């Protein structure tokens, strides 16, 4: 049976997703092109060998519309013969790209493929793809959910309430994310994965010097009087501090068969071991990481005790803490270099960013198995296991 291995994985530093952010001046096509160019350069391969490039983008409008990935391939200087496509599984778009790429290699459809992702939230604001749309769901959806769904911030509030997560615990997790990211940056833990761009060489959103007292003074980010009446159980504990940031960035992962890597004289970073994707309650929206984790472990024939490191997207502290409580995961091996609360969450890039961080951290720490999972809008989640070689 064919396998799929990662031979290189890179990402840009993550910039603040605002006009004053360091990467705001970089067009999203060029932002992705930078990671694409860098991943083949570091591997030392001819980009003409790439059978396909699969890119994740969430807000596919304006500068990020019309198959951005194809334009990025051409902007990176790849031969015109290299094809590309763009996928959308919301926040998990580029993790899905990794899944599709690996599955294509395992099936024999590809020998060499790049999975990547990008989001320039400072240039293409979140939600701009639905501007002007009076109805994005249609009649059948409305009939099934007559009370309507809610935004992700409210879903995070509902999760915090259901799992009994206090404001203090949410803020403690957020502080720890920044502390781990700051330490990882200081110690050079990200050096092997970063491809500096536009004068930015480290992640721009990491904060130091905060405290529980300072975080405790922040107002709830999503309080709504009507929703408070609809959901009286909500404690209104989600703030800007215990939620992920708005960011710009890109990442790229070079995947090929083990036989192709050997033919090219390349040493793989890891093998892509097992995959899962699941759906869950679209009102809670962000809880599918729990069944996704169980499904991928079952497929792999592994237990949580076998997993050395976990990268789970920190969309909100509440998501990670509910997942950890429900699965019994030891937080000491979760997001060991910080997560999206500190590093940032450039939507379409985050899946490939987590993969990049995970495989480099596994090798640095001598771990064997890594688990990656992400919650996604609509009550979805991807999960996968990688194995170092």
UniProtKB/TrEMBL annotation:
Q: Which organism is it from?
A: Nocardia jiangsuensis
What residues does the Thiolase C-terminal domain cover? 266-387
Listed SUPFAM superfamilies? Thiolase-like
Classification via InterPro entries = Thiolase, Thiolase-like, Thiolase_C, Thiolase_CS, Thiolase_N
Which first-to-last residue range defines the signal peptide?
none
* Entry-linked Pfam families: Thiolase_C (PF02803), Thiolase_N (PF00108)
Q: Which family does it belong to?
A: Belongs to the thiolase-like superfamily. Thiolase family.
List, alphabetically, the PROSITE patterns matched. THIOLASE_2
Q: Where is the Thiolase N-terminal domain?
A: 5-257
Keyword terms, alphabetized: Acyltransferase, Transferase
Q: Return the protein name.
A: Thiolase family protein
